[in-house]
Amino acid sequence: MLTDIEIAKSAKMLKITEVAKKLGINEDDLVPYGHYMAKVSEDFISRVEGNRDGKLILVTAINPTPAGEGKTTTTVGIGQAMGKLNKNAVIALREPSLGPVFGVKGGAAGGGYAQVLPMEDINLHFTGDMHAITSANNLLCALIDNHIQQGNTLQIDPRRIEIKRVLDMNDRALRNITIGLGGKANGVPREDGFMITVASEIMAILCLSRDLEDLKRRFGEILVAYSYAGEPIYARDLKAEGAMTALMKYAILPNIVQTLEGTPCIMHGGPFANIAHGCNSVRATRLALKLADYVITEAGFGADLGAEKFLDIKCRMAGLKPDCVVLVATVRALKYNGGVAKADLAAENLDALKKGIVNLEAHIENLSKYNIPVIVAINRFHTDSDAELGFIKETCDRLGAEYALSEVFAKGGEGGIELAEKVIAVADSGKSNYKPIYEDDLSIADKIRKIATEIYGADGVNFAPAAAKMIAQIEKLGYSKCPVCIAKTQYSLSDDQTLLGRPKNFTLNIKSVRLSAGAGFVVALAGDIMTMPGLPKIPAAEKIDIDKNGEIDGLF
Fold first, then answer.
1. What is the pTM of this model?
2. 270: which of 14, 95, 451, 480 fits an S-S bond (Cβ 3.0–4.6 Å)?
3. Which residues contact 336 (CB under 8 A, 6 or more apart)?
């Protein structure tokens, strides 16, 4: 069996100008990055603003397991299948982070015969957006420390600085550090730390901004610190927003690439869904909707994280109304939720499947609360038995959910025809009547409780004293109507990654809360979630190599 990178290398890519023409984008409307990647110009985005919107399809999944679910692969496969059905379709994805690429999770370009190309470039530096975000964030941090060094006229309290430096790499050693050592010339010593770039507020702002002007305004709204008197200090007080926006001049432009079968893909932004809001940029999704009849996008990790944030944060802020949700599940992952070890997942085990199917049931029920029709995509593996597949279908029938088998990993678009036809029929049916799970007027604590009880299945929420104090502070500053972004483990519906299936009788523990005023939401950290991941015992980086001709190997 060929590896993902071998499949990608064997593909004959179209020049990006040819891919863009499928969407009515001329060569002059592109900012090229070689022959196969480009950004779409601001002028073109403005010209198509008045176009009619296409149908919006969200792809999400059950809780992730080591067995894999194939959410991005399914997203790409649906787009390719629609191409085979002669439909005007485009996919809208997030950009990969180097942390997972060299760590354990892998890239974000799909897999098998449902990939986005050029895979190596996309999974490495791509068009430099991650670098720009990192630079803008760290410029702001440098301006804060320089202001303190140069007299501190704003009276910034070094103990209450709210923003951290970032790096687009997993590096646990940087979570907590001390800076400014070495004498007076090197700054004022204080405790600091790093987050991964994709968890930063700069990334969130990029993904939620309408245009360059909105980006600059949001940068100015970033709450960077408190004064000794307890007054909030924003990035605009440091006059930081102009220079930060200058660094993002090109990063704010959506990128266009292609699938293995030449389907256009608009790829832009890449926040994690376990520690950020997990959706590609509003600009990319809006542009896609103006250019195609069907837009297939995805949100990170399971539906309790990415889909919830897509529906309660992104759609709320951008005025988006999804027409259909595709929920990806596999026999293997459901058996894992039923207690089967990864090494034993190939063997038929109906008892474990019946035990683990509750995870799928929970996600179907949760998504129905948003009044959007759900289609279960059963991502088929060659080890799946007919009895196992039949049991999943029976469960979907019992819950009133549409379903279809998907074999896009092995067969590309051809393996997604049945699923794509179901998606088209449901999206065109007009059955969607989307509404968020909570209203703006609820208190911050009640919004967290609503998500915890309605989506995670918790009995309630325990707020640590520091979290309760911060919520009161945020509401005092006038941000009570903001949506909430809960950061928690992706492996469980609860905040304990060992509780698989559908946990019962648990309390969600909120340890800390912070305001992302520029992004426009409140972040609540649940359980032991980390905003700077670490590398695993055997990082994927150990298997990646390059030869004298520049050919990369081991990249999945």
1. 0.95
2. 95
3. 65, 66, 67, 342, 345, 356, 500
